[in-house]
Amino acid sequence: MRYMDIAQKRAQSLIEKQSAVVLGIETSCDETAAAVVKDGRQVYGNAVYSQIPVHERYGGVVPELASRNHVEQLGPVVQRALHEAGMTLKDIDAIAVTACPGLVGALLTGVSYAKGLAYAGGLPLVGVNHIAGHIAANYISHADCAPPFICLVASGGHSHIFDVGAYTSATLIGCTRDDAAGEAFDKIARVLGLGYPGGPRLEALAAMGNPNALPLPAALRDSLDFSFSGVKTAVINYLHRMRSRGGNVNYADVAASFQHSVVRALVDKTMRAATMRGAALLTLTGGVSANKALKEAFSKRTEESGLRFFAPHPRYTGDNAAMIACAGYYALMAGQLAGLDLNAVARITYAR
Ligand code: KG4
Ligand code: ZN
């Protein structure tokens, strides 16, 4: 029998049982990750190899280095995830891999690896959208999180507000017109000399500063879209001005004011989206959802408005493969199988 016939037959029996042990693989940026997840919700094994030490000295991710490092690390990382689960490849029912969006060379390493495993084992293969993976991070963190809800995905590459109608469908209702929130954190962290990755370091510095010290502009007030270039430029201009005058700059105040301004934009627009769509549940996800000021602001505002609110467990805020296996499980149950012609796609555009 041909691979696709075998995979389809296996997928059909998994759908009938509504049960599958999925091996997830994630290599879209600078984390090499693998995870074993049962029925979309029970994480048996979760391994993440962070490439931060590889890229740190360059101040950002170097795509070629990321791809080479993924190739080296994928095998050991998959073994670690299986070992943690107390399983071997024989126990795996299906493979889910991030196929878009991300660095194309980095994505390709995971996609090729996953295709090899699927072909060798005659296993169903699912291509997962990385952003759908981030949305799924709340399913593995909270047993009672289920669609419909409004979700803010705030990461290094995305600031997207989705209306999540079902496990396999989400409508984009707002997104950034320039930098993503995490990207803005990283850039301001760099001008403050905090190094890479900037988000967590900027948050730590902000905790010691006054969030109202600098008056910073708020962009696109009447839209669900974000723009962070104005606030970024305002901070950079302020630093230039102060330095050229030889004045003393309180970096903690700058970090706190910048963070306050980004948090306000993220919370205001997502809350407005929830009201417009009549949502009862709001979720936050992505690397920036590790930020305590952001989580606290969302907790407060959702409580005031009578909305339920979920943010991922700290293990699942940044890139990981458990969220990919989870999203892959729901796609598999919806019959969304990929063939061996699955390809990596760097960018995707959403209909709005
Ligand atoms: O989701 P993620 O790991 O990768 C992408 O898909 O982009 O997100 C990484 C981003 C980086 O920009 C990082 O600086 C930011 O998340 N980040 C934070 C914090 N922790 C990570 N930003 C603000 N505060 C944090 N605590
Ligand atoms: Zn991500």
Could you say which structural class the secondary elements and strand pairing correspond to?
alpha/beta
What is the CATH C-level name of the largest domain? Alpha Beta
Q: Fraction of residues in helices?
A: 40-55%
Bound molecules: 5'-O-[(R)-(carboxyoxy)(hydroxy)phosphoryl]adenosine, zinc ion
* CATH homologous superfamily placement of the largest domain: ATPase, nucleotide binding domain
Description of the structure:
The chain is globular, with a radius of gyration of 21 Å. Strand 1 (21-26) and strand 2 form a beta hairpin. Helix 6 packs antiparallel against helix 9 (251-276) and helix 9 packs parallel to helix 10. The protein has 2 domains: 3-138 and 317-333, ATPase, nucleotide binding domain (Nucleotidyltransferase, domain 5); 144-312, Nucleotidyltransferase, domain 5. The protein has helices at 3-17, 52-55, 63-85, 104-121, 130-141, 181-191, 198-206, 229-244, 251-276, 292-304, 322-333; strands spanning 21-26, 31-38, 42-50, 94-100, 125-129, 149-154, 159-166, 169-175, 281-285, 308-310. It is built from 11 helices and 10 strands. A 5-stranded mixed beta sheet has the order 3-2-1-4-5, with helices on both faces. The chain has a 5-stranded mixed beta sheet with strand order 8-7-6-9-10, with helices on both faces. The protein starts with a helix and ends in a 19-residue tail after the last helix. With 352 residues, the chain is of the alpha/beta class. Bound molecules: 5'-O-[(R)-(carboxyoxy)(hydroxy)phosphoryl]adenosine and zinc ion. Residues 130, 134, 155, 319 line the site of zinc ion (ZN).
